Every structure is written in C-alpha cells, then in structure tokens.
C-alpha cells in the first residue's frame, strides 16, 4: 500500500516539479471528481483546469472554492450531458479550440441507472462509463501527446476488479450488476491498451476508488441500486474513505512517477511524473511488466495482482483487445459517421 504520507509528500512536490499543468476533469461537480479537482487546485502551480458536469449551481460553488485555494489558477466549467457521444465531441472541440496540449485527463463521470438506452442507442450505464470516456480519450489523445512533460489519463471505475467479456453483449444490456462491472472494467483495460499502442508516451490508468461517498445513488432506478444505496446510507460512515484522502490519492495517481508511460523521454524527466519517495516502487502494468504504461490499480495505489494479469492475458490470447476496439469504433462510426480512430 502507498501510505497517505507518501501520497501527500508526492503531491507537495507538484508545484515545483510540474508547474503550469493543464488538466481536464470529466464528472467533477460532485464526489470523487470534485475532490480530485480541489486537490489539484490546492497543489499545482499556476494550473489551468477545465471541468465538465451537469450542474451549473455546483460548478459556481466549486469554481469559487478552487479560486480561493489557488488564486493564480484558472478554472473553467463546461456544462454538458456526456451520455451522448455528440455532446462528448462538442466538449472536446471546445477544449481543443483553447488548448493545444493537455497534461492530465481525469475521468470520473458515471451513473448507476440501468435498463435504459440513450437516444443514440447505447445502454445508459456503459454509454457514460465506457463509450463516453473512450471517446473523450480518443478525441483528446493528440493534445495529450502534444504536452511537454506529464501526459496522463486516469479513469475512475473499478480497476483490479476485472472479469470476463461477453462478446454477444458488449453493451451489457442483459447483465446483472456484478457481472456488468467486471465486463466493463476489462473492456476498459482492452481499450486503454489499444490507445497506448497509438500513444506509448502517455500513461493510462484505471483505478478502483474504494468506498467513497459520491452521490451516484441519487440516480438509482433499479431495486438493486436502491438497496445498495440504502445499505451504504447505514454503513457508509463506517467504511467510507474520507473524501479529502480520495482526492489526494487520485491526484497522486495523476502525477506520480510510480505509473510511468511505456515510452519515457530521458530529456524530460517530468514525463514520468513526480519522483518517487524512498521505498516506493514503479507499478506493474496490466501485462504484469514493470512500468509498461497501462495500469489497473486499487485505491491503495497498488497494481492488480497475478490473478487479474492472468485473466487479461487470456483475453488478449482470445483476440479480445482487437474485438473490443473494433466494436467500440464501430459504435462511434454508427453514431457520428466514420472517423480516423
């Protein structure tokens, strides 16, 4: 486990090691995304952050709080419903009209609504937690590659909780919740590995945030989701990771050299992130190799163990990486027309 003191020590070096960062936070008007954004504001020097969500009221409050934490920073809100791919593309165009390079793309948008389709024909839950996130990364990948120094993607879902992928139901329309989680987590790993092939100089992380009070339960629309929300209401205060600690740990994931890209620039030391404290080692990637650029990590900061590595190896041997990417691009093309992804 990466200790909280090591996390805090690393974050304290961001201002001197990684000045002038440009970051994009997707789903940052509550919960984990808001906590990570605030820690970014607290720790970075002269940063510029775009944050995307659905609540203008929450955004006004968060903007004021971030400016108080860091008067030298810029904090720009973009209101959008990212369950629709066309809205994802519009958000990316707006950001790209203002920024040529991006250092951090942090994705925590999500929902627990299930059993519904968007107007674009995607199952609501994976529409936000898989398709929208993958589209955001794909669209903004040129900007990440263009960055000097740190280049990183962090997707908050359920890393280390991978499961089988059902090729007959990529959209998970006919799955129970627990099976759906493992399916989407493994699909995300496969997509991130495909994206890393296109941009080996970028780090890709999928993490499990642990039990954090996020506010997703307010969107419950099934008996199971309501039951989970009820249980958490009772036991949550006993098991929740403190919101501030969650923000600190996610900022660490976004900036620490524990998670370097597959290809590092010797000329730019910061391309790997904030240097490691004594005793902290570089993580193993999803392929089981040290520092291989794509990481599935636990909230504690440790990488997935041999059981997950074995499962993912089996999926690759089945050609699942190519199958997932072909399906994903096919859905994007169906919705938006053919692209170069």
TrEMBL record:
<dbReference type="InterPro" id="IPR052228">
    <property type="entry name" value="Sec_Metab_Biosynth_Oxidored"/>
</dbReference>
<feature type="transmembrane region" description="Helical">
    <location>
        <begin position="223"/>
        <end position="241"/>
    </location>
</feature>
<protein>
    <submittedName>
        <fullName>Short-chain dehydrogenase/reductase SDR</fullName>
    </submittedName>
</protein>
<keyword id="KW-0812">Transmembrane</keyword>
<keyword id="KW-0472">Membrane</keyword>
<dbReference type="Pfam" id="PF00106">
    <property type="entry name" value="adh_short"/>
</dbReference>
<keyword id="KW-1133">Transmembrane helix</keyword>
<keyword id="KW-0560">Oxidoreductase</keyword>
<dbReference type="InterPro" id="IPR036291">
    <property type="entry name" value="NAD(P)-bd_dom_sf"/>
</dbReference>
<dbReference type="GO" id="GO:0016491">
    <property type="term" value="F:oxidoreductase activity"/>
</dbReference>
<dbReference type="InterPro" id="IPR002347">
    <property type="entry name" value="SDR_fam"/>
</dbReference>
């Amino acid at each position: 486990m990466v200790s909280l003191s090591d996390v805090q020590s690393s974050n304290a070096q961001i201002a001197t090691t990684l000045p002038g960062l440009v970051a994009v936070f997707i789903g940052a008007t509550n919960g984990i995304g808001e906590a990570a954004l605030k820690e970014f504001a607290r720790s970075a020097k002269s940063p510029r952050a775009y944050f995307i969500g659905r609540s203008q009221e929450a955004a006004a409050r968060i903007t004021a709080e971030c400016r108080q934490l860091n008067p030298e920073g810029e904090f720009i809100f973009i209101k959008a419903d990212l369950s629709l791919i066309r809205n994802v593309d519009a958000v990316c165009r707006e950001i790209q009209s203002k920024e040529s390079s991006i250092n951090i793309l942090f994705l925590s948008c999500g929902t627990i609504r299930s059993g519904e389709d968007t107007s674009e024909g995607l199952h609501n839950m994976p529409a936000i937690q898989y398709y929208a996130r993958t589209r955001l990364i794909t669209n903004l990948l040129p900007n990440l590659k263009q960055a000097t120094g740190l280049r990183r993607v962090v997707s908050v879902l359920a890393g280390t909780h991978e499961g089988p992928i059902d090729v007959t139901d990529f959209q998970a329309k006919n799955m129970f919740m627990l099976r759906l989680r493992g399916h989407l987590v493994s699909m995300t790993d496969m997509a991130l590995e495909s994206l890393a092939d296109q941009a080996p100089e970028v780090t890709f992380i999928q993490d499990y945030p642990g039990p954090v009070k996020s506010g997703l339960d307010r969107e419950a629309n099934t008996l199971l989701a309501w039951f989970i929300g009820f249980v958490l209401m009772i036991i949550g205060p006993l098991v929740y990771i403190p919101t501030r600690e969650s923000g600190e740990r996610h900022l660490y994931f976004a900036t620490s050299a524990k998670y370097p890209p597959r290809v590092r620039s010797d000329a730019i030391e910061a391309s790997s992130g904030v240097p490691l404290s004594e005793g902290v080692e570089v993580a193993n990637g999803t392929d089981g190799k040290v520092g291989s650029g794509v990481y599935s990590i636990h909230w504690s900061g440790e990488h997935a163990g041999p059981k997950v590595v074995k499962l993912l190896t089996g999926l690759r041997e089945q050609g699942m990486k190519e199958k997932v990417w072909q399906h994903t691009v096919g859905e994007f093309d169906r919705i938006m027309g053919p692209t170069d992804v």
